[in-house]
Amino acid sequence: MIASHLVVPADITVSWTDIAGLDSVIQELRESVVLPVQHKDLFKRSKLWQAPKGVLLHGPPGCGKTLIAKATAKEAGMRFINLDVAILTDKWYGESQKLTSAVFSLAAKIEPCIIFIDEIDSFLRSRNLNDHEATAMMKTQFMMLWDGLSTNSNSTVIVMGATNRPQDLDKAIVRRMPAQFHIGLPSETQRNDILKLILQSEEISQDVDLNRLSKLTNGFSGSDLREMCRNASVFRMRQLIVASDQSGEALDRNNVNITMDDLLNSHL
Ligand code: ATP
User: Which residues does the UniProt record annotate as the domain AAA+ ATPase (predicted)?
Assistant: First the structure.
């Protein structure tokens, strides 16, 4: 079951070139995660330097947190374990305890490795009196395994968590993730960059005005922008098919360019 969530770098299909508008986050991750993995021998020579064991990515849904985590693993040549929180929380305590230990020991064996936990708050939220005893024990065990990573300074295993609700996270967890990045809704300039990236592989008509689209899409996430472009592309193809069906003429394959109207009609 764990192996089905393990991805080796060669199989990670996204890299930093697939991310737009997040240059400063990428630069910081490059410095704090990627370079130390790529130049491990050099960094090990300083007793003052310590590999980060935890990174927190927080911000609204669809803004690229998972994308960034995967691309970081790809760029650093790290393996990537996508730890599905539901798998842990759905099991009875003994079983999830075994699974958690297995994940950490697997990660240490195949290091350098990122253990990615989406919606980390649902699993490691602030402890409270209503916590089921098993939940509290699971959190404690998770933290112990995590702390165990620091005792083996040779291994590079990073727990990377993503959340829309950083305020709900247990403070003890937050302390273990000193590198924190807010990935917010994109600004107009960032939306322009994202639209350029998404549409660069598409055939688009000359009337497509990215500056206007960027203005009109205030509040859209990267995921929303992608969906808008996807809808426009599908709409264009359907239009061609309908036109061909109605006229009885062959499909006009030279006219697949997405138009500004297609995009505006697909504007959510
Ligand atoms: P969630 O909190 O819902 O898990 P997320 O923040 O992890 O969301 P992703 O799953 O990384 O968001 O993003 C969804 C999709 O949106 C990506 O696969 C990508 O196609 C697109 N996307 C989001 N942000 C960007 C961006 N900055 N550049 C390019 N594409 C983006």
Answer: 51-189
Give tens-digit pLDDT for 172-198: 889 999 899 999 999 999 999 999 999
Q: Alpha-carbon distance 3 to 18, whole Å? A: 26
Residue whose token pair is 């322009």? 192
Distance 193 CA to ligand 1 centre (A): 14
Cα–ligand 1 centroid distance for 68 (angstroms):
8
Give, as one character, the DSSP assignment of residue 178: -
222 lines ligand 1 (CB under 6 A): yes
160 Cβ inside 6 Å of ligand 1: no
Residue 148 CA neighbour count, 13 Å, CB half: 12
The DSSP element (H or E) to which 57 belongs, if any, is strand 54-58
Q: Under a CB-based contact definition with an 8 Å cutoff, are residues 7 and 82 in contact?
A: yes
The reply to whether the predicted model has a pTM over 0.80 is: yes
Q: Does the beta carbon of 25 lie inside 6 Å of ligand 1?
A: no
